[in-house]
Amino acid sequence: MNSSAPGISNQSLYSESEELNTLSSNVGDVLSHCNSLKSDIIEYGADACNDLQLLSELMLEFQNVRANMKALRSAVEHIEPLLSANDEDDENEIDFESILCRCTAEIPVDEEIISAVNAIRGYVHHNNRAASSENEEIQVVRETTENFEDPVTRRIITNPVKSVICNHSYDKSSIEVYLQKKTRCPVTGCVKELRKEDLIEDLDLKQKLAVKSGKKGNGGHEFTCKL
């Protein structure tokens, strides 16, 4: 649909642009809050896998809404100079749909949200596989700290991330510093190349660390659960 210049003012476009910017910012705040809920769901949720799956779907929906708002705002900004030109020639028309399609294609993917959704999917997939073995009781936390050691610093991991290439886990701060100089996974024996873009949040290990911390608070009593 083509939109002609008469009836549209720069002032009204500015108002629309500011409103879209505010709405986009509000949706961004919601996305940040959703992202921060992952750890709470893992630690306190009665059905963490199902709740996380629903959360990831909501995050993708909100991200699509925000991307559409950004595209609309960009289209509005493209129209403003065209309106000024049309003031001199009222026969010219503005093809808003074409401008909007072009602006939509130019909106970049939100890598942070995609990374969070991939981390959730990895966690759900891992736990669903574990649950498929009937009557298989697995111990959530070992007494040793071997699985929780960061391969770079040899200290206990506090903010776990993992490679989507080799599935090894690291502490976020140490691996990011490590990757500034090296490109191979720091786990002994692993020859896989590693980039910062290959890292996602390790929700499974985050859950184990949370349970381990809870065990210490309960006097160190051992317990198991079925996933």
Automatic annotation (TrEMBL):
Q: In which pathway does it act?
A: Protein modification; protein sumoylation
Q: Name one GO biological process term.
A: double-strand break repair via homologous recombination
GO cellular-component terms in the record?
A: nucleus; Smc5-Smc6 complex
Q: What is the lineage of its organism?
A: Eukaryota, Metazoa, Ecdysozoa, Arthropoda, Chelicerata
Q: Please name the InterPro entries in this protein's record.
A: Nse2(Mms21) (IPR026846), Znf_MIZ (IPR004181), Znf_RING/FYVE/PHD (IPR013083)
Question: Where does the SP-RING-type domain start and stop, copy by copy?
Answer: 134-214
Q: Name one GO molecular function term.
A: ligase activity
Protein name, per record? E3 SUMO-protein ligase NSE2
Q: Which family does it belong to?
A: Belongs to the NSE2 family.
Q: Where in the cell is it found?
A: Nucleus
Q: Which Pfam families match?
A: zf-Nse
Q: Which Gene3D superfamilies match?
A: Zinc/RING finger domain, C3HC4 (zinc finger)
Keywords assigned: Ligase, Metal-binding, Nucleus, Transferase, Ubl conjugation pathway, Zinc, Zinc-finger
Q: Which PROSITE patterns is this protein grouped with?
A: ZF_SP_RING
